[in-house]
Structures are given as C-alpha cells and as structure tokens.
Amino acid sequence: MKHNNKYVYPKTVRVSIDGKRHYNINDKEKLPSVTTILSKTSPAEKEEGLRKWREKKWARRTRRGSWMRLQHGGPRCTRFLRTIF
C-alpha cells in the first residue's frame, strides 16, 4: 500500500484505562478508541446479542480444543477422557 502524506497524524501510544482502550496523544490527552465509543453508545439489545455470540463462539472453541486434545493423544488425552467419563 502506498503511504499517503495528505494527513499528518500525531504520535500515539495505546493505553488501557479501566479495561478500555485509549490513545495517549503527545502525553497531553487520552482519547477513547472507536470501539470504546461504540460500546458505550450501542443499544442494550445489541450488547445482549454480542454477549450471546461470544458465549457461542467460546463454546465452539472449547469443543474444538477438546477434539484436538483427543486427536493428539498421550497423557493429556488420558486425563481429559477421565474427566468426561
């Protein structure tokens, strides 16, 4: 991608404030990220939908990890099988 010099952006450092991403601009001000702003302004229904999606995603990921442990075999697999059966 070709660099565009049309805009001059100040140096920023990403920091976390209360678990939310902010950008420290030239040590003068800390601005929240776009995702932080959107999370504060989104309707409750959307937040509920995202929460359900995250739970579903992590449930799938956990099942996938379990299957990968079974395929790998070895002592970890044996311990895992004992916890299930």
How would you describe the overall organization of this protein?
The protein is an alpha+beta fold and 85 residues long. The chain folds into two domains: 1-41, no CATH class; 44-85. It contains three helices and three strands. The longest helix is centred in the C-terminal third of the chain and has 29 residues, at 44-72. The protein starts with 11 loop residues before the first strand and ends with a helix.
Total number of strands: 3
Measured by DSSP, the beta-strand proportion falls in 15-25%
**Main sheet specs:** 3 strands, antiparallel
Order of helices and strands: EEEHHH
Helix content: 55-70%
Strands ordered across the widest β-sheet: 1-2-3
Shape: elongated
Which structural category fits the helices and strands? alpha+beta
Separation of the first and last Cα atoms: 54 Å
Rounded to an integer in angstroms, the radius of gyration calculated over CA atoms is 22 Å
Number of domains: 2
Attribute tags:
85 residues, alpha+beta, 2 domains, three-stranded antiparallel β-sheet
Characterize this entry briefly:
The protein is of the alpha+beta class. It has helices at residues 34-41, 44-72, 74-84, and strands at residues 12-17, 20-25, 29-32.
